[in-house]
Amino acid sequence: MKKLAEVLRDWEAVIGLEVHTELTTLETKMFCNCRLSHDDDPNANVCPICLGMPGALPVPNEKAIESIVMAGIATNCEVMRHSMFYRKHYFYPDMAKNFQTTQGPVAFVMHGHLDLEVSGQGAKERPDSTVEKAQDGSYVASIRILRIHMEEDAAKMNHVGGAEGRIGGASESLIDYNRCGTPLIELVTEPDLRTPEEARLFMEKLRQTFLTLGISDCSLESGSMRCDGNISLRRRGETRFGTKTEMKNINSLKSLHDALEYEICRQAEVLEEGGIVYQETRHWEPSRRRTVVMRVKETADDYRMYPDPDLAPFDLSDEFVERCRARVPELPDAKRDRYVATWGLRRSDATQLAGDPAVARFFEDAADVTGAKVVPTLANVMVNLVPSFKALTVAQVASISSLLAADAITFAQAREVLEVVDGTEGDPERVVDERGMRQSTDTDALGAIVDEVLGRCTAQVQQYRDGNRKVLGFLVGQCMKASKGSGNPKMFNQLLAQRLEA
Ligand code: ADP
Ligand code: MG
Ligand code: ZN
User: Fold this and answer.
1) DSSP string, 290-353
2) CA-CA distance, 450 to 479, in Å (whole number)?
3) For residue 2, how far is its CA from the centre of ligand 1 (angstroms)?
């Protein structure tokens, strides 16, 4: 198969995502008072409503509707004041009612967008001729969101006696209704995405947004956030869309990217050989890095959708919408901008820190401890050091950042210290003192060492004066050695340069 870059020169990829998110942070299900927990014993959290007993009456969960309205506001959607629930009929044991309660043509929130900043390696996937790129190759893609509607999740089926929990070859299927009736929001994008990287970034940004709102734990791995990728190709310059396939079983951001990449290349091969792409659902197999057919769509499904007579239509008040708006916290983009404006952080660092609400909170707590001057160093520590440790405390990270900012230790020493204190209450300052790491920043003492080194390295001094600036590194190394590592390399660098330029 051809490589992605080659395919995307001739073909344009058209991608749309459908993202289901369980509102895991709520206490109860969508239409009943059953506890929302998937960890309890199977079928412990069930009642006549979520089991669909005749005559049981559903009552909508107000908090779930608050959550979806917040999700809509955070993704620039319009809040639809009038909407209602529909019944979508199908027969399958994962829904004892034989219909799923969902929304019809009008969803709670519609017509939004998320803007993606695509940069670095990922930006190269998009041919330059199709988008306006900045000098560094980055560009902004605005992805429209068609709607976010409210529905309920189905029961979890566990297929046993076969391979990999798949239904094919299984001897029995066990049903756990604990998940049945879990509030679920489904977001549908317009087919505006053009590369696997854009799709990956969209999912990442959506996940960060929902995490910041606190409406879900957003785990792709455990399935509380699930994403289907729809993908078709068309020749560059063609205005009509091609036939799409839909990909399921995507349980990480990397899988989403890789599955789309594979599928783009597969479709290109089919089309270039004169074949046709069938409208079908395909399953991504991460271990074999390919997609396989799950089912072919032959006719439109007939779900007999009609308004649910048990649930009154909604008429959202100004007061309700404003209450939801007030509950939307500072979102990742605004947080990033504030970090850049307040502390002069690099945009890439600020983006990374602002994306995950837990990381952002940790960072801001540490910034309170260190004070503003140390914050750029703190940001560097958060991005480049902290992720490789298990359980550092705010105090430890603040302390190591202050030591680095004061040039008392090097970055390599900081890593060594954090290895010692990780998972304990240990104080980095004490470790630095105990190990005699503290570097001297005493200009007189360091100056004497510099003079000694310059006195004996006459050849290198001459090379420097002849224009070979690289020997400065060698001279710094000599100074470090002479000070037995106790001198500060940045200071040595400065003192050497001063004397050599004099
Ligand atoms: P279906 O009826 O098959 O579910 P929809 O029209 O509801 O299809 O669209 C589902 C998703 O597929 C949406 O995200 C939409 O943007 C995307 N989509 C629609 N048509 C195409 C296409 N030709 N190529 C790629 N994605 C598409
Ligand atoms: Mg659809
Ligand atoms: Zn129930």
Assistant:
1) EEEEEEE--S------EE-TTSPPEE--HHHHHHHHHH----HHHHHHHHHHHH---HHHHHHH
2) 6
3) 25
The structure's pTM equals 0.88
Domain ranges of the chain: 4-320, 332-434, 443-501
| Residue indicated by tokens 């470790």 | 431
- Backbone torsions φ then ψ of 184, nearest 5 degrees: -135, 135
Taking alpha carbons only, the member of 451, 388, 454, 449 closest to residue 422 is: 388
The answer to whether 381 touches 400, Cβ cutoff 8 Å, is yes
> In the sheet that 306-307 helps form, which strands lie side by side, from edge to edge?
99-103, 85-89, 306-307
Residue type, 38: H
**Ligand 1 pocket: which residues have CB below 6 Å?**
14-18, 188-191, 230-232, 241, 244
pLDDT, average across residues 294-303: 72
pLDDT digits (tens, 9 = 90+) for 163-206: 666 777 788 889 999 999 999 999 999 999 999 999 999 999 99
Residues with CB under 5 A from ligand 3 (ion): 32, 34, 47, 49-50
Q: Which ligand is nearest to the CA of 191?
A: 1
Under CATH, which architecture does the 443-501 domain have? Orthogonal Bundle (1.10)
261 and 196 Cβ atoms separated by less than 8 Å:
yes
Torsions phi, psi for 101 (to 5 deg): -85, 125
> Residue length, the chain?
502
Residue 261, helix vs strand vs coil: helix
CB-neighbour burial class of residue 339 (10 A; exposed 0-12, middle 13-18, buried 19+): buried
pLDDT tens per residue, range 254-294 = 999 999 999 999 999 999 999 999 999 998 888 888 888 87
CA distance 367 to 405: 13
The residues facing 245 across adjacent strands are 231
Question: What span, in angstroms and rounded, lies between the C-alpha atoms of 312 and 382?
Answer: 50
Give the C-alpha distances (Å, rounded to integers) separating 281 from 50, 171, 370. Answer: 29, 24, 53
